[in-house]
Design a protein that fits this description.
Helix content of chain B: under 10%
Helix content of chain A: under 10%
Order of helices and strands of chain B: EEEEEEEEEEE
Mean pLDDT of chain A: 92
Number of helices of chain B: 0
Low-confidence stretches of chain B: none
Radius of gyration of chain B: 13 Å
Low-confidence stretches of chain A: none
Shape of chain B: globular
Structural class of chain A: mainly beta
Oligomer: heterodimer
Radius of gyration of chain A: 13 Å
Number of strands of chain B: 11
Largest interface: A-B, 21 and 26 residues
Number of helices of chain A: 0
Distance between the termini of chain B: 41 Å
Structural class of chain B: mainly beta
Strand content of chain B: over 45%
Shape of chain A: globular
Distance between the termini of chain A: 36 Å
Chain lengths: 112, 112
């Protein structure tokens, strides 16, 4: 079934650890996004990509990096996790041409 | 870049009443305006969208209006029901090769 998948759904890690949040979509979408969403609900854009080998930083500097080696895969890496990174992370993908953006179910990260 | 402002941040209505959420955008080149609904614990999902060549669009109890001159667009929900309770996000896009920019969200509560 065509969808966008995020793993893990929940993650608790210690400060200083390196982690990678996975995002994969089976719809062949070129545009992909990573958002950080706090309980205050606002969607903060962290990174986005227009296609393979294309990545841009968003409005929120989250000390993270992304890669886009394959169209379907857009992983987000935190080199050194901090308690301030505790949040929900949402991945989304979109077909170019201003159409619907599809969101994954999110990864809820807790850094202790 | 594009900036989208959304008001109000919270809205409480009685069941059966109407609800209106308003957004303004900064870039007159924006031509695509979607609205997303995020229920508690779930991912945002598209509920309606409008393009710049249309002034109004309806889908059952929800409608969106666009005023290009004033650079604002609104979501109207009529005959609200408790299941309409959610966070609603507006967004704007300049074109197919640009990122989607979201407003900060509106928490709508429909009281039975």
């Amino acid at each position: 079934e065509a969808d966008i998948y995020q793993t893990p759904r929940y993650l608790v890690i210690g400060t200083g650890k390196k982690i990678t949040l996975e995002c994969s979509q089976t719809m062949g979408h070129d545009k992909m996004y990573w958002y950080q969403q706090d309980p205050g609900m606002e969607l903060h854009l962290i990174h986005y990509s227009y296609g393979v080998n294309s990545t841009e930083k968003g409005d929120l500097s989250s000390e993270s990096t992304v890669s886009r080696i394959r169209t379907e895969h857009f992983p987000l890496t935190l080199e050194s996790a901090r308690p301030s990174h505790t949040s929900q992370y949402l991945c989304a993908s979109e077909v170019p041409g201003n159409t619907e953006a599809f969101f994954g179910q999110g990864t809820r990260l807790t850094v202790v | 870049g594009e900036n989208v402002e959304q008001h109000p941040s919270t809205l409480s209505v009685q069941e059966g009443d109407s609800a209106v959420i308003k957004c303004t955008y900064s870039d007159s080149a924006s031509n695509y305006f979607p609205w997303y609904k995020q229920e508690l614990g779930k991912r945002p999902q598209l509920i309606i969208d409008i393009r710049s060549n249309v002034g109004e669009k309806k889908d059952q109890r929800i409608a969106v209006t666009l005023n290009k001159t004033a650079k604002h667009f609104s979501l109207h929900i009529t005959e609200t029901q408790p299941e309409d309770s959610a966070v609603y996000f507006c967004a704007a896009s300049i074109g197919s090769n640009y990122k989607l920019t979201f407003g900060k969200g509106t928490l709508l509560t429909v009281n039975p």
